[in-house]
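Please decode residue identities from the backbone states below.
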């Protein structure tokens, strides 16, 4: 059997190959860690919905309270997606012949619910209760961003375990009076002094469980 011999000049490539061989494992670890991080995969997620519903119009220009549509947020673990009837409370009179409202009218007339696409998702291993946070001074904009400026809703926060724990360790800057929960323009860091933030922290702060703190110190 004949042997294949590399030409002598190929020896000049050995240092380069050794360098690449040393860097590749580090690159692979970084690529996987960053590529699968919540920040990379989730923040900015903006699916198209079956109805062109604009939060910028309804919550921004018209000033609708978040709780009119998401009416379980203060008493349930979940912020309910509004049924078609909620939409038709207004749209039987307002812009009822608009093409944009046509899918809503069809849902109302046929009784088939609109299949909205969920934007904010948590892992099955995580338990999050909306009412526990809303009733303790965490505003909608803290987690969801300025929804009142979004025509199409996008995920604003990474919603990772580390992101949640950073707030739980120092919730003061993110807490606001309960009557300001749905005020998107309210900025606790600007409109509240440190003493008031500390007071709300003592009243409302939810401490992470011992189980969480064991792994995420």
């Amino acid at each position: 059997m004949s042997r294949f011999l590399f030409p002598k000049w190929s020896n000049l490539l050995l240092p380069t190959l050794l360098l690449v061989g040393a860097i590749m494992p580090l690159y692979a670890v970084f690529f996987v860690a960053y590529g699968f991080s919540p920040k990379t995969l989730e923040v900015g997620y903006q699916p198209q919905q079956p109805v062109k519903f604009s939060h910028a119009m309804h919550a921004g220009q018209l000033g609708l309270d978040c709780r009119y549509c998401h009416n379980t947020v203060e008493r349930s673990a979940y912020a309910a997606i509004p049924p078609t009837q909620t939409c038709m409370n207004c749209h039987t009179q307002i812009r009822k012949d608009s093409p944009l409202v046509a899918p809503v009218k069809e849902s109302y007339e046929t009784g088939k619910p609109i299949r909205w696409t969920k934007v904010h998702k948590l892992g099955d291993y995580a338990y999050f209760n909306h009412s526990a946070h809303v009733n303790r001074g965490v505003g909608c904009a803290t987690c969801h961003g300025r929804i009142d400026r979004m025509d199409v809703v996008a995920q604003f926060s990474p919603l990772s375990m580390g992101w949640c724990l950073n707030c739980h360790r120092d919730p003061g800057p993110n807490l606001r009076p309960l009557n300001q929960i749905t005020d998107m323009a309210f900025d606790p860091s600007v409109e509240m002094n440190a003493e008031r933030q500390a007071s709300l922290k003592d009243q409302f702060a939810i401490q992470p469980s011992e189980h969480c703190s064991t792994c995420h110190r």
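Observation: The radius of gyration is 25 Å.
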